[in-house]
């Protein structure tokens, strides 16, 4: 993927005057307009945004649209492989893609803590611009608020997205059938461990990079090839395990996966071993599972792997006749156990 | 991953399991002491590979689980003070204190203290807490020194350095427990049905295994120092069963890639410089004489219990939880009437349901079929 920080523009806000965001930048006056014009308009320029209405007026071809929203509160704002800006675009784009929608338009609301370096906001905006280009979406409307110092964590971003649905499938846990096959688009656990390592200052031999990536392209390829997708789910907070449990419960189905089929990179595995984490529960930002009919598995896998970022796509399990609402996993040594959802976040273990 | 994959190899594991089946002629009950081993057994389903004659009993070796309610309450009390930065390993934060009743009342834990404004920080080493103390001289930094012999050297080092470098605002709330007295307490119980032990590899990495030799002899039980990967545990079981079938009761070392008979001598020396042996209350079990570590006279300035005047505080445990019986191997988690109903990881009655290494949590998470 392109280096999202690979830009040569420098911040056009007169940094000598305002190296940090002031409360006044959210006050509705000249400073706010300057910030919007020079920071956001300059970065995200497109006709809908430039119309400067209270709302963006958009064209949609299809009769059905998908609509979603998500808020992003990551610490630190920049981490190996990504940053809050890229996450805010890809996260929402990916949520749209999981209903089989082609993402079109994105809104973004910034909640900025007083004192945030203007340069930081500029870097985030550039990253969002790049991510939107990568994902093929347009940022069409937005909002800026500034909160008192100490009342935010530097920067929070909310994005909402609209995508159009051209297919006639039902893509949902309820559409999953006995015998269906679960396909994943790569290794797991990278994003969570990258952020964890950056946040806690843990140093490993090589920096673990987030898997942060747009997924709509891969999903569109599957749909355009006529794959009868039954269910899609991205593996964000709670990781692969929580996503599978959600599907099994919602669809009243039994899922069995194979531990040996799930790929975890060595550096991620090592970091998990040290901290006592289970990679099954670690967040991803560029991974999803597709549940497809058995007959279409080979073709779906070929299509998925044709994307150079997802060459490690693999079959990880099946929908079987076991007790509904339960996910089981065949361990590496051949025994079977339940996969449950965690009650909270994973906490590092004592020993 | 090198040094891990070899010990998780399916083929080798199956071979050892087959070999155990071949040599087993009678029923045997074996206890794994350590919560880390319990976790591996349940997570990989090792017990499913064993012949039905072998019963594994899950021991009291999770430091999170056996830390007394009293100490959790003391931690909550200290962490609630405005002048304190309370540092802890992550998994202690969800352990409920004394108000656990199973009714509508939710037990207070360190996470809820944090939500109410307490400055509680997860650290990965006590030395990180010492660093915070150095950087924040106006605050009282308290580290929750929990664990078996495994974590004792690092905790001792933090206190040793605090004294040596003159960092007066650093203290530790000591909750250290020792394995050999716990094994003796279990073996002295009239209900005992444990015939062999897997001793904890990392505890023995620090302490060695000479301490276990008199126990094996006195009670006639084989004790095998065992590692934490599936193959380690299967080999440990194999070695215990070999001894049981042959009528031997010796201490053997499966975890030879890490453990020597004398242990780590500099680490042991540091422990005895900073800590002394004291009686210790175990959650669900009660007080076991000479089963814990406390700070020696020379280091008592760094004892958080003394610093915050909490030495006299005593707390009774809730009655419904049978974690004591579970920790002694007398009951299995699912034999508790509250298991999975009034007691779940979201609303635990006792600590064995809280820690990811606790036997009840492991059963709940992996075995609720």
Describe the structure.
The complex is a heterodimer of chains A (351) and B (369). Chain A is an alpha+beta fold. Chain A folds into 2 domains: 23-165, 60s Ribosomal Protein L30, Chain: A (2-Layer Sandwich), CATH 3.30.1330.10; 173-339, PurM-like C-terminal domain (Phosphoribosyl-aminoimidazole Synthetase, Chain A, domain 2). Chain A has 9 helices and 13 strands. Chain A has a 7-stranded mixed β-sheet, sandwiched between helices. In chain A, strands 1-6-4-5 form a 4-stranded mixed β-sheet. Chain B is an alpha/beta fold and 369 residues long. Chain B folds into 3 domains: 5-29 and 43-58 and 185-253, HypD, alpha/beta domain 1 (Rossmann fold, 3-Layer(aba) Sandwich), CATH 3.40.50; 65-178 and 264-307, 3-Layer(aba) Sandwich (Rossmann fold); 323-366, no CATH class. Chain B is 38% helix and 19% strand. Chain B has a 6-stranded mixed β-sheet with strand order 4-3-5-6-11-10, sandwiched between helices. In chain B, strands 2-1-7-8-9 form a 5-stranded parallel β-sheet, with helices on both faces. In chain B, helix 6 (110-115) links the parallel strand 3 and strand 4. Mean pLDDT of chain B is 91; it is low at 100-104.
Brief rundown of the structure:
Chain A has 351 residues and is of the alpha+beta class. Chain A has nine helices and 13 strands. Chain A has two domains: 23-165, PurM-like, N-terminal domain (60s Ribosomal Protein L30, Chain: A); 173-339, PurM-like C-terminal domain (Phosphoribosyl-aminoimidazole Synthetase, Chain A, domain 2, Alpha-Beta Complex), CATH 3.90.650.
């Amino acid at each position: 993927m392109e280096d999202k920080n690979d830009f040569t523009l420098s911040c056009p806000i007169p940094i000598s005057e305002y190296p940090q965001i002031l409360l006044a930048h959210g006050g509705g006056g000249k400073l706010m307009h300057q910030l919007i014009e020079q920071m956001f308009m300059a970065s995200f320029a497109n006709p809908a945004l430039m119309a400067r209405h209270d709302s963006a007026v958009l064209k949609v071809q299809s009769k059905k649209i998908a609509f979603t929203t998500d808020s992003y509160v990551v610490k630190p704002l920049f981490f190996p492989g990504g940053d809050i800006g890229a996450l805010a675009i890809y996260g929402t784009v990916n949520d749209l893609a999981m209903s089989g929608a082609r993402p079109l338009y994105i809104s973004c609301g910034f909640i900025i803590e007083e004192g945030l370096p203007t340069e930081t906001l500029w870097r985030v905006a550039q990253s969002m611009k790049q991510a939107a280009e990568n994902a093929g979406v347009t940022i069409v409307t937005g909002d800026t608020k500034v909160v008192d110092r100490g009342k935010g964590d530097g920067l929070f971003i909310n994005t909402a997205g609209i995508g159009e649905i051209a297919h006639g499938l039902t893509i949902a846990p309820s559409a999953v059938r006995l015998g269906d096959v679960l396909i994943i688009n790569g290794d797991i656990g990278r994003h969570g461990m990258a952020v964890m390592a950056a946040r806690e200052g843990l140093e490993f031999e090589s920096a673990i990079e987030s898997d942060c990536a747009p997924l709509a392209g891969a999903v569109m390829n599957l749909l355009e090839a006529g794959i009868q997708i039954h269910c899609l789910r991205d593996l964000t907070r709670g990781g692969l395990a929580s996503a599978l449990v959600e599907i099994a419960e919602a669809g009243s189905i039994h899922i069995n996966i194979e531990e040996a089929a799930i790929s975890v990179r060595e550096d991620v595995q090592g970091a998990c071993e040290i901290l006592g984490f289970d990679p099954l529960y670690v967040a991803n930002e560029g991974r999803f599972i597709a549940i497809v009919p058995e007959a279409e598995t080979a073709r779906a896998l070929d299509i998925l792997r044709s994307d150079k970022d997802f060459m490690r796509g693999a079959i990880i399990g099946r929908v079987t006749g076991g007790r509904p609402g339960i996910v089981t996993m065949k361990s590496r040594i051949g025994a079977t156990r339940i996969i449950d959802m965690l009650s909270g976040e994973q906490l590092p273990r004592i020993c | 991953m090198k040094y891990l994959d070899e010990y998780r190899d399916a083929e080798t594991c199956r071979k050892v399991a087959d070999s155990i089946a071949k040599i087993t002629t009678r029923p045997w009950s074996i206890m794994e002491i350590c919560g880390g081993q319990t976790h591996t057994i349940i997570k990989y389903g090792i017990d499913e590979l064993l012949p039905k004659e072998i019963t594994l009993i899950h021991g009291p070796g999770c430091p999170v689980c056996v830390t007394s309610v009293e100490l959790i309450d003391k931690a909550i009390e200290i962490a609630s003070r405005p002048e304190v930065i309370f540092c802890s390993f992550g998994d202690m934060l969800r352990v409920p204190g004394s108000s656990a009743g199973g009714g509508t009342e939710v037990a207070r834990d360190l996470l809820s203290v944090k939500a109410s404004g307490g400055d509680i920080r997860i650290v990965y080493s006590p030395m990180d807490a010492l660093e915070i103390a150095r950087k924040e001289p106006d605050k009282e930094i308290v580290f929750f020194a929990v664990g078996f012999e495994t974590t004792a050297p690092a905790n001792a080092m933090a206190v040793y350095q605090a004294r040596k470098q003159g960092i007066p605002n650093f203290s530790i709330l000591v909750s250290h427990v020792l394995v050999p007295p716990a094994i003796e307490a279990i073996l002295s119980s009239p209900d005992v049905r444990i015939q062999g032990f897997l001793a904890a590899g990392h505890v023995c990495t620090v302490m060695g295994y000479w301490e276990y030799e008199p126990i094996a002899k006195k009670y006639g039980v084989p004790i095998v120092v065992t590692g934490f990967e599936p193959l380690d545990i299967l080999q440990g079981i194999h070695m215990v069963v070999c001894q049981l079938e042959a009528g031997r009761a010796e201490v053997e070392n499966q975890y030879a890639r890490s453990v020597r008979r004398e242990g780590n001598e500099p680490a042991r020396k540091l422990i005895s410089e900073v800590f002394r042996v004291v009686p210790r209350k175990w959650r669900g079990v009660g007080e076991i004489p000479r089963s814990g570590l406390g700070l020696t006279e020379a280091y008592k300035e760094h004892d958080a219990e003394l610093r915050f005047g909490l030495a006299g505080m005593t707390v009774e445990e809730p009655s419904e939880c049978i974690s004591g019986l579970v920790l002694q191997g007398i009951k299995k988690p699912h034999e508790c009437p509250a298991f999975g109903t009034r007691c779940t990881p979201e609303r635990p009655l006792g600590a064995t349901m809280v820690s990811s290494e606790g036997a009840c949590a492991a059963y709940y998470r992996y075995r609720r079929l």
